[in-house]
Design brief:
single chain, Jelly Rolls, about 55% helix, 17 strands, alpha+beta, five-stranded mixed β-sheet, rod-shaped, four-stranded antiparallel β-sheet
Length: about 475
């Protein structure tokens, strides 16, 4: 054995070290003490002037929570030093120390401990061995606890991410269910409205057709009357400006005519007016009134037919807009979807200058009802963001195998702090002035675009306002 080996202190087993300490303590008059289970050794917050060396049994360390409930921190066995920090530093005890079983311990107060260390090197060496062993053991437990905490933190983070994803998926599913329910309800309402409009319109047109057949026969005996009636049925549209100019001329030439008669004559075509002009020059007011009435009967039938054509287009547009496609994909004409959506939203768009640049577009795979919903949300948002009288642009085209459609407005644009989140649920720019939103329209629109393998983006215009761009893949 070398000199360095012989000078190295020999580490004894814990049981031998404890036995040696007891023998050394007895040499200076200190006997071990026994405590029953449940007896308190140290109390949290109290000062401590003694070191306790546990010889037999177990000691429980606990700390009181805010409500006074004790929480166990650790359980110590033979060889443990109890109260070492409060003993060494003079600070109050950090926790309660209680006998968890019948125990035997060596209690040494500060003065006796300092004398023993100074006078007995073996006592000092054995105490140091236990101290190092205690610190080493506590360090290992602390390191293990840190690793356990780190593992739990990773698990919690993983569970939190999974929960966040589940909440997002649940919210998306909820939005889709709300959207589908709204579409289904709207489809039923529009289909019912279209049906209710179509029935009286058909009855009205049957009556008009009958009048169109019977009146010429009734007027056939008088070619002049029949000519005036037919002139009314085929009369072209006269603008307001042209009508006013004719009224002014008629009032200056035929002062015996009332203002109402001048206004009715001003709507006649030049050919029809020639038939009345002879009676005007003759100042035959009764015959002029008769001819005006015949012209207006024909004109009224013509107006009813034109109105019926508009109603027919409206009914067709409502049926097309509200179709639900049975949940399956089909070839969808985006330009037809645009036309139907513009017709349905005409009551809102008429307050704006709407610029439409939409060529004939190829079909895209999808569900027409859902594409209509995207267009409706984009145009409705543009109306809400744009002051009345300003311009809304609707443009479309084809680029690199994708149909694109842009809705631009002259509104307030999207705030920069929201532009990255504007498609998230519950994010809305409508927060006052009588406008309130749930922030679901754009979120639903983006989800529908993604379901069609497309994309929906937004950017603010340098001139003011925003542009929303929808892209869908061509079949």
């Amino acid at each position: 054995m070398t000199d360095s080996d012989s000078s190295h202190p020999r580490i004894l087993p814990t049981s031998e070290a404890l036995k040696g300490l007891v023998d050394r303590a007895r040499a200076f008059g200190q006997e071990p003490v026994r405590l029953r289970r449940g007896e308190k050794i140290l109390s949290e917050g109290e000062t401590n002037s003694s070191l306790y060396i546990l010889l037999e049994g177990e000691v429980e360390l606990s700390k009181r929570e805010e409500d006074g409930t004790p929480r166990v921190l650790d359980v110590l066995g033979p060889g443990s030093l109890i109260g070492i920090l409060s003993f060494w530093t003079g600070k109050p005890s950090f926790s309660d120390s209680t006998a968890a079983s019948g125990i035997e311990c060596l209690r040494i107060d500060l003065d006796r401990f300092e004398r023993a260390v100074a006078e007995d090197s073996e006592f000092a060496r054995l105490t140091l061995q236990l101290l190092v062993a205690n610190l080493s053991d506590r360090y290992r437990r602390l390191a293990g606890l840190n690793l356990k905490v780190a593992g739990l933190t990773r698990e919690l983070e993983s569970e939190r991410n999974a929960l966040r994803k589940a909440v997002t998926d649940l919210q998306r599913t909820r939005n889709q269910l709300v959207h589908k329910e709204k579409l289904a309800t709207m489809g039923e309402l529009l289909a019912g409205i279209a049906h209710e409009i179509n029935n009286p319109s058909s009855s009205l047109m049957k009556s008009v057709e009958q009048l169109g057949r019977d009146l010429p026969a009734a007027l056939g005996a008088d070619p002049e009357k029949l000519r005036m009636f037919e002139a009314g049925r085929t009369a072209p549209f006269v603008s307001t400006t042209e009508s006013r100019e004719r009224m002014a001329e008629l009032q200056s030439r035929y002062e015996f005519l009332s203002r109402g008669q001048c206004r009715r004559l001003a709507r006649m075509s030049p050919e029809a007016f020639e038939s009345v002009e002879t009676d005007l020059r003759a100042r035959n007011a009764e015959r002029v009134e008769e001819r005006i009435r015949l012209f207006e009967i024909g004109s009224a039938l013509h107006s009813i037919r034109v109105a019926d054509e508009r109603i027919t287009r409206l009914v067709k547009g409502l049926k097309s807009y509200s179709r639900q496609d049975g949940g399956g994909e089909s070839d969808v004409r985006v330009d037809e979807c645009i036309r139907d959506t513009l017709m349905v939203l005409n009551h809102r768009l008429k307050h704006y200058n709407v610029s439409v640049e939409v060529p004939e577009l190829p079909t895209v795979p999808g569900r027409a009802g859902e594409i209509n919903q995207i267009l409706t949300n984009l145009l409705a948002n543009a109306c809400e963001a744009t002051p009345k009288g300003k311009t809304i642009w609707l443009r479309a085209g084809v680029e690199e195998g994708r149909v694109w459609l842009e809705v631009s407005d002259e509104g307030h644009g999207v705030p920069e702090e929201l532009i990255e989140r504007i498609f998230e649920p519950n994010v809305t720019t409508k927060s006052g002035g009588g406008q309130y939103g749930l922030g679901l329209g754009l979120a639903i629109s983006r989800d529908l675009a993604l379901q069609h393998q497309g994309a929906l983006r937004v950017e603010n215009r340098s001139e003011g306002g925003a542009t929303f761009r929808l892209e869908l893949p061509v079949r």
